[in-house]
Amino acid sequence: MALVVATSIAGAREAMEVAPKGGSSRGLVPTMGALHEGHHELIQVARRECDWLAVSIFVNPTQFGPEEDFDTYPRDLESDLARCRQLGVDLVFQPGRDEIYPATHRTFVEIETVTSHLCGRFRPGHFRGVATIVLKLLNILEPDRAYFGEKDAQQTVVVRQMVKDLHLPVNIRQVPTVRDTDGLAISSRNRHLGLRERKAATVLFRTLKEIRTMVLQGARDAGQVRRNGLRLLSREPLVQVEYLDLVDPETMQPVSRIQGPVRAAGAIRLGRVRLIDNVLCEDRDG
Amino acid sequence: MALVVATSIAGAREAMEVAPKGGSSRGLVPTMGALHEGHHELIQVARRECDWLAVSIFVNPTQFGPEEDFDTYPRDLESDLARCRQLGVDLVFQPGRDEIYPATHRTFVEIETVTSHLCGRFRPGHFRGVATIVLKLLNILEPDRAYFGEKDAQQTVVVRQMVKDLHLPVNIRQVPTVRDTDGLAISSRNRHLGLRERKAATVLFRTLKEIRTMVLQGARDAGQVRRNGLRLLSREPLVQVEYLDLVDPETMQPVSRIQGPVRAAGAIRLGRVRLIDNVLCEDRDG
Questions:
Q1: Residue A170 in 3-state DSSP?
Q2: Which of A217, B21, B135, B249 has its CA 20 to 30 A from that of A59?
Q3: What's the CA gap between A62 and A211, in Å, rounded?
């Protein structure tokens, strides 16, 4: 089937009427556009698992703070559509801001605890915006499965918490982070990095891998491991650290004693670009 | 069909499988039980309009403040079931608190502006709890129509705002308030009134009717009308006034100049019992 592009909710619902029903599965990959190799992987995994696949493209204003990069967030619709067509997507849903957030919009979803640390602490209101837009998209497109990238692991935890608490009939899938050959996690924001910043940015993943090694080698004092990680990051003068933490992968709460799987997560700034990354530190044999 | 009583989400979903589908309509009357003539009317209207009808019974803890009457809120399941059976309800959904709010529950729906006055001002968190439980019930029972009483007019506005903002495929119906012969709005809490309080309580509806008369006779200064109403209420020494306001019926914001339909709404206390009521002041010919 050819790709349908819907720019309104009514248009999306019309496209959904021809989607296969009953026993077959619908997939959704929610994105903010500027599709890259990370999205490519999400769409490929979803395409394999679902009979009908929608990709939403919407730069969601409510998840950006007033000082953040909503205005400069990359937008590249033509190349996004070409990629979706190439990957066999059935529907691209690309709604207008006025239909998703009309002037009368007043409803927000708040998720406690899992949003209190990491990005939730440094971007107040961010996950409120994320949860609200994801709930809207789930209600509009009614997928059986929705796909999120592990780079935004806290986002997946937030969405899963919402889905469970609101009894939504959707399966949330997390797809491993796609990395450049030097390890940098692929992100739409990478294109804003200068050459020296681009090189310095790799320190984040190197640090996270080092933390994983320490944990797998038996380190138990999370504070000690974290201080070692911060020392590594501080060797890169272009990098400002926003946070570096070891958290429980289910609750996203910082741990002090490492007693099971932990997620090491960090956020750094290079000039005006903010990057995040994380790795699961888990002994797969134990 | 015989009444099915489900005490779990899985049980409700099983009952829904035998519900008529495709073109036929499902109704939901969400209640906190202790069903009275007001609920009776809601259920009768819903029964006429829907092919399959669910009544939920759940005293929702998140809409009660810490100092409020959650513990003493009336519960009367046997008589509730008898009434539902008599009215031809298909499903009574009476979930346990642990399934609706497990210890891990973290998600709440917040609705701005329409909750900032009237009950929203005097019961902080009340409509957050209402919106959250209604969204859960809508997601679990997937009705085409849900029914609410006009006595809780602000609640209807809040639910309609949520339904619109979250793109939920449900029609919210408001059913007129049922009153005792002396005008007192029927409420589960009326049974906690002593004989003298019961008599004094009628002053609220008399005041609201008086306000409507003033508005229909051309009063335009809402402050003046409100002061007249407060004077009437103050003649009843057993009554403490929580609020008395004239608000825009769509936004629930107080008006200063009366230029179209307004809703007059009040909340009073008689001892430990809190009662609310409201009337729409609208010139049906104009």
A1: coil
A2: B135
A3: 33
Disruptive mutation site among A62, A154, A164, A166 for chain B (greatest number of B CBs within 10 Å):
A166
Round the CA-based radius of gyration of chain B to a whole number and report it. 19
Q: What is the token pair recorded at B182?
A: 């002396």
CA distances to B35, B41, B95, B198, B240 from B191, in Å: 12, 19, 25, 9, 18
Contact A140 B167 (CB under 8 A): yes
The token pair that represents A144 in the structure block: 């059986």
Residue B51: Cβ-neighbour burial (10 angstroms; 0-12, 13-18, 19+):
middle
Map out the domains of chain B with their CATH numbers: 4-175 (3.40.50.620), 188-281 (3.30.1300.10)
Amino acid, res. B233 = L
Whether residue B21 lies within 8 A of chain A, CB to CB, comes out as no
What DSSP line would sit under B174-188, residue for residue? EEPPPB-TTSPBP-G
Read off the pLDDT band of A183 (50, 70, 90): very high
CA gap A113, A120 in Å, rounded: 9
Say what the pLDDT of residue A189 is.
95
When pLDDT is cut at 50, 70 and 90, the band that residue B208 belongs to is: very high
B4-53 pLDDT, tens digit per residue, is 999 999 999 999 998 877 667 999 999 999 999 999 999 999 999 999 99
